[in-house]
Write a structure and sequence with these properties.
Blueprint (H helix, E strand, L loop, with lengths): L4 E5 L3 H4 L6 H19 L7 H7 L3 E3 L2 H16 L9 H6 L14 H8 L7 E4 L2 E4 L12 H15 L5 E5 L2 E5 L10 E5 L5 E6 L5 E6 L4 E4 L2 E4 L2 E2 L4 E2 L4 E8 L2 H14 L1 H10 L3 E8 L2 E6 L12
Antiparallel strand pairs: 1-5, 2-4, 3-4, 5-6, 6-9, 7-8, 9-14, 10-11, 12-13, 14-15, 15-16
């Protein structure tokens, strides 16, 4: 997935005495789980299920896991009116944020329009465990949802081993359950998008997942113009608005991951309206001059940690 992972867990007394619960033994199993997700859904591995589907002309039978994530992606596509689109890969690559390298110049409108003809989740389908496409050029990139799915996979593995107090973190997508030793809540933070590690807000998310999408890390500049890694499928261009970061809390890390992307694409006004309509726990940071303005839904408020 091109990033780190970190798992923190609190074991009970019996588990601490059991060799099967040593860090090294658990890590081997977690690595296997994440390797499998990569073998299924990576666009960087030429022999992954997803890469093989992208090379196929029409259909490919895949694992239930890949079919499940694609189905979730199509549901988000419909729910967001096309703002979330896992077939946007050709445009992501065109702008230099995929496996292709950074372009030497900004793509022309004509080039963008040609690439847009290859894009559209309405041309993608899933039947049982078979993926199919109505256009042979269709290219699926699950990077906006598969990392969150990976967090869920690790969390489910821990729970299957009877580990019910944990914090899983894959590249900033997190899922928490239970408590730390001494019965303390897991404490998380929303980062302030300035240079250095600054905390905007402290959170206690309970037994939930959290995902943040922001353009303040993954971008490049051409002629003084900043280009975000998040591409709007409707324009074929990087998003261009004042929404700096979106944080979503949800029981599923996969859904939190995907929804954070949806709201990033929609922007501050449409994104907040969408979050309210869907009754989502969402926190936005919007740039206003040199300041960052906080906006959040009523569903998010209970997770904010207020120091007494």
């Amino acid at each position: 997935m091109g990033t780190y992972y970190q798992v923190t867990m609190a074991l009970n007394e019996q588990q601490q005495l059991d060799a099967a619960y040593k860090i090294s033994a658990i890590q081997v199993e977690i690595d296997k789980q994440l390797e499998l997700v990569n073998d299924q859904m990576s666009t960087y591995r030429p022999d992954s299920e997803l890469s093989r589907f992208n090379k196929a002309k029409e259909t490919l039978e895949v694992s239930p896991a890949t079919a499940y994530v694609v189905k979730a992606s199509l549901a988000l596509f419909n729910q967001s009116n096309g703002a979330f689109d896992v077939t946007v890969g050709p445009l992501v690559n065109l702008w230099g944020f995929g496996p292709d390298k950074k372009p030497i110049k900004v793509p022309s409108d004509e080039t963008i329009k040609k690439r847009q003809q290859w894009v559209g989740s309405q041309y993608l389908g899933v039947r049982d465990n078979t993926l199919y496409k109505a256009k042979p050029e269709l290219y699926v990139d699950l990077s906006s949802i598969a990392k969150g799915y990976g967090v869920d996979v690790v969390a489910q593995y821990l729970e299957s081993r009877g580990i019910n107090d944990y914090l899983v973190d894959i590249g900033g997508e997190l899922r928490a359950k239970g408590v730390k030793p001494q019965n303390e809540q897991w404490m998380l933070a929303i980062e302030r998008p300035n240079i250095g590690q600054n905390v905007q807000r402290l959170l206690q998310i309970g037994d939930n997942a959290i995902a943040t999408s922001g353009d303040y890390r993954n971008y490049y500049e051409f002629d003084g113009i900043r280009y975000s890694h998040t591409i709007d499928p409707k324009t074929g261009k990087p998003i261009n608005h004042k929404l700096v970061s979106v944080t979503v809390i949800h029981e599923s890390s996969m859904m939190a991951d995907g929804l954070a992307t949806v709201i990033s694409v929609l922007g501050p006004e449409e994104g907040l309206t969408f979050a309210k309509q869907q009754k989502l726990a969402v926190f936005l940071l919007v740039k206003q001059g040199d300041e960052y303005i906080e906006q959040f839904t009523a569903e998010f408020k209970p997770y904010l940690f207020e120091e007494k």
